[in-house]
Give the backbone structure.
Amino acid sequence: MFDLTNKVAVITGGASGIGRAIVERFLKAGAQVLLVDRNEASIPGSVFHQADVSNEDAVHGMIERGVQEFGHVDILINNAGIQPLGVSFDELTPQLMQRTLEVNVHSVAFGIKHGAKLIKPGGRIINTGSFVGMIGSPSGTAYSMSKAAVIHLTKLGAIELAAKGITVNCVCPGTVLTPAVTDIPDNPEIPFVSRATPLGRLAQPEEIAAVFHFLASDDASYVTGAILPVDGGITAGWSEYPLTAPDNVIGGQWHD
């Protein structure tokens, strides 16, 4: 199911976390993979390409490298990003805002731009958003804003690239057990999100990669412009909301 044999995928941020899980899953499904990252990485079966995706020329160059290496590109995964959470408006600086925009937003916009020219008709572009791009998150400022922008770029890309038969979709993970989360000592996000998430736990990277796999496959040929939360239900609503019914609600009935 969801066979990717003879498909070529360019995957950014593929050295660790969600990106690495996507690379490994796509390889198992038969895809040829160009792994793009700033940091050198070696995953057996993939070809490594070093690039800083905040630079437009680098984004164009990585897709072009995929074409040169494998003859064509079918799938672009715009996954690379930085995660400056815990920064309130009081702490926000022009440098942090600019760098977050360059890495998280410019990379996606230019990925769509150059993907439209270099990806085969019928291809796929899949962007990594976040649940905090869908709901308000205190101290999210630059990061949450950037992921909200990714969501809207996805919709715009889906409209413009439809004529070329290229679908554009966005996966919005909840909090995932990646080094960005687990490497923070006593990270308070882990117990908080576990309590707030209806499924009562954080995601494994492989659970997020599975959704990218579906969207990259031929089975998702009629899915475009979709914003798909993979978040254990946290954007559906709180798992707890302690309330006391008014005194005039008695036996499940409202008494005036």
Observations:
- The chain has a mean pLDDT of 96.
- Strands lie at 8-12, 32-37, 47-50, 73-78, 119-128, 167-173, 227-230, 249-250, 253-254.
